[in-house]
């Protein structure tokens, strides 16, 4: 039978990015950790970590093994937390995954005060735009910004804030081309779009009137920060979440186009595996993020 303690040791070594920092965190001799990982590699018949006196790298198979070992460790923590009770003080490591834009626009301002509020907790954020299997890769929480409802994934979902999407353009562009008085006038304007195949924007006003519009594709980018930069340069009109263009509108570098209309909305949702969501630390993080999400 495998020694599961070695799985735990390996996960901690990878989490701390080396034997020495892991030894300090666990208060265990570095030699003991190195011996246990070496024994694990011998048992598995593969190299998990390439280590020299100057460099520490996890092998490709080691990365795959780590995701499962970390998930096992989280499940063990969840089991222990349930025994200790729901009122336990939040502690331990909480692993969060989010897209790069969500990490930059939303979590960058929230996670430092979260860490200060819970000194016994360690927060780990993995920002990536690739598909992440939350369960298999051992994450506690996934933070997703989405325009359409999320598909049923078997994960527990907690809806956070919903932010309006506004049409914006630089003052110089509107001075030269004129501000469109109605949504139908957008067809005569240059659009900064997410893709060439995008069908344009679905506009809605306070009265509930819905209109689909499509400007002339002038500039294409599937990243909101790039579209904002293109708008600031005067290339045309684009659609941005309110939280991404609020500061520019306040300082006058961007102007809201058709201010009585919105081009949809973006919702922030937190997802978590059911059992890990019972951890006091995970509940505390979810509550904190949900309560402090900017409304735009």
TrEMBL record:
InterPro entries: LysR-type_TF_proteobact-type (IPR058163), LysR_HTH_N (IPR000847), LysR_subst-bd (IPR005119), WH-like_DNA-bd_sf (IPR036388), WH_DNA-bd_sf (IPR036390). The keyword Metal-binding does not apply. GO terms for molecular function: DNA-binding transcription factor activity; sequence-specific DNA binding. Gene3D superfamilies: 3.40.190.290, Winged helix-like DNA-binding domain superfamily/Winged helix DNA-binding domain. Residues 1-59 form the HTH lysR-type domain. One of its GO terms (biological process) is DNA-templated transcription. The keyword DNA-binding applies. This is LysR family transcriptional regulator. It comes from Ensifer adhaerens (Sinorhizobium morelense).
């Amino acid at each position: 039978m495998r020694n599961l303690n070695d799985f735990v040791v390996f996960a901690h070594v990878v989490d701390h990015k080396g034997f020495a920092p892991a030894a300090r965190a666990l208060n265990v001799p570095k030699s003991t950790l190195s011996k246990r990982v070496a024994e694990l590699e011998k048992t598995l018949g593969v190299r998990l970590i390439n280590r020299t006196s100057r460099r520490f790298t996890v092998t490709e198979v080691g990365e795959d093994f780590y995701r499962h070992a970390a998930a096992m460790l989280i499940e063990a923590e969840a089991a222990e937390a349930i025994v200790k009770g729901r009122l336990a003080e939040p502690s331990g490591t909480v692993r969060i995954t989010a897209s790069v834009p969500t990490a930059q626009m939303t979590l960058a301002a929230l996670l430092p005060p979260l860490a200060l509020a819970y000194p016994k907790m360690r927060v780990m954020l993995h920002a990536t735009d690739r598909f992440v299997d939350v369960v298999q890769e051992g994450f506690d929480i996934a933070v997703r910004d989405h325009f359409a409802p999320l598909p049923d994934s078997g994960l527990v979902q907690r809806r956070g804030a919903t932010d309006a999407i506004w049409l914006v353009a630089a003052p110089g562009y509107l001075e030269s081309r004129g501000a469109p008085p109605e949504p139908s006038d957008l067809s005569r304007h240059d659009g900064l779009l997410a893709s060439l195949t995008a069908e344009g924007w679905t506009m809605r006003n306070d009265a509930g009137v819905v209109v689909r519009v499509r400007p002339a594709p002038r500039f294409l980018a599937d990243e909101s920060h790039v579209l904002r930069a293109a708008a600031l340069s005067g290339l045309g009109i684009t659609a941005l979440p309110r939280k991404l263009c609020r500061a520019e509108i306040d300082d006058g570098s961007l102007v809201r186009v058709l201010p009585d209309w919105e081009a949809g909305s973006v919702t922030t949702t937190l997802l978590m595996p059911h059992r890990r969501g019972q951890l006091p630390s995970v509940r505390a993080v979810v509550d904190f993020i949900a309560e402090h999400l900017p409304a735009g």
